[in-house]
Inverse folding.
């Protein structure tokens, strides 16, 4: 019964996608400390990726596009940790960087497929790049039928910031709602199954179902059940503060958590929901500011119980 309730609630149409590009530097340059900002500037200046930028700049609270941080050709994400060391991120002429865009939604397929034909030179003032498409991965939402698994491994690639308010109950009582709204927001440095799956459920409802997650009871229900039906069997997490750039003349810092979490479902009824929600997260990320590259996660579903 629980499985049917979850799957009905997590229905929807649309596509998930990950587009990969190669950025070839035409000059020596110093990049912003959180390099998704460079990738965003490239999108803004690009002619053949202008539709992607328009999609990103939509007024929707849950963005259908995620701009990931740039990576080296070996896959190492490029961002600066606030550790007191003065180590700017640089790129040399002729060097290549990997640039990725995650997509999710009902009306993104045409934008995704047209984006990967883009090849042009773009000047972002402090650097020039040639954009070259690499490949495109797409999945239709209705095909997300899971194969049974014993454990799920979540590798948090860039700092994840999930608000403590995510697990606020969907109450109608005015006094309680006021108390919650006046509560100062903070972020989980030990994200439990409830927070991870509730956050992913909010993104699913907004992007795949096209509904308002704040008034939907499903994220809270999935979160509460996850703390009963899912156990953490391993974690290796590290609180991390990263430099984001300058805002109002001051250095902006963002604190989140990165590392690995291994979860084990204790009841098979919740497995399809876990599979759908974390598959979505693997494309678009989890938590606050995931559309600019925070909360990038890699998810693998494993049959064996080893870590």
């Amino acid at each position: 019964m629980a499985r049917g309730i979850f799957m009905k609630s997590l229905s929807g149409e649309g596509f998930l996608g990950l587009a990969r590009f190669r950025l070839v530097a035409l000059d020596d340059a110093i990049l912003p400390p959180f390099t998704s900002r460079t990738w965003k500037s490239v999108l803004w200046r690009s002619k053949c990726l202008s539709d992607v930028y328009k999609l990103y700049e939509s007024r929707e609270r849950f963005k259908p596009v995620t701009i990931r941080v740039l990576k080296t050709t070996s896959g190492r994400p490029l961002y600066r940790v606030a550790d007191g060391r003065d180590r700017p991120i640089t790129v040399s002429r002729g060097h290549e960087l990997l640039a990725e865009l995650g997509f999710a939604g009902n009306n993104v397929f045409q934008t995704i497929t047209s984006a990967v034909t883009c090849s042009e030179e773009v000047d972002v003032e402090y650097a020039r790049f040639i954009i070259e498409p690499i490949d495109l991965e797409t999945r239709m939402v209705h095909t997300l039928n899971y194969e049974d698994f014993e454990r799920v491994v979540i590798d948090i690639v860039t700092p994840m910031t999930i608000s403590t308010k995510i697990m606020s109950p969907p109450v109608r009582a005015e006094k309680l709602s006021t108390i919650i709204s006046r509560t100062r927001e903070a972020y989980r440095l030990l994200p439990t199954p409830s927070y991870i799956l509730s956050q992913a459920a909010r993104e699913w409802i907004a992007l795949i179902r096209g509904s308002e997650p704040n008034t939907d009871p499903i994220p809270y229900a999935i979160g509460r059940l996850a703390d009963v039906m899912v156990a953490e069997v391993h974690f290796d997490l590290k609180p991390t503060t990263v430099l984001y750039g300058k805002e109002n003349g001051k250095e902006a810092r963002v604190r989140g958590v990165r590392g690995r979490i291994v979860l084990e479902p204790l009841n098979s009824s919740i497995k399809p929901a876990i599979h759908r929600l974390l598959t979505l997260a693997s494309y678009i990320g989890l938590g606050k500011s995931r559309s600019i590259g925070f909360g990038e996660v890699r998810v693998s579903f494993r049959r064996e119980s080893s870590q």
User: Anything to note?
Assistant: The first helix runs from residue 2 to 9. The chain has a mean pLDDT of 90. The radius of gyration is 20 Å. The first strand starts at residue 15 and ends at 25.
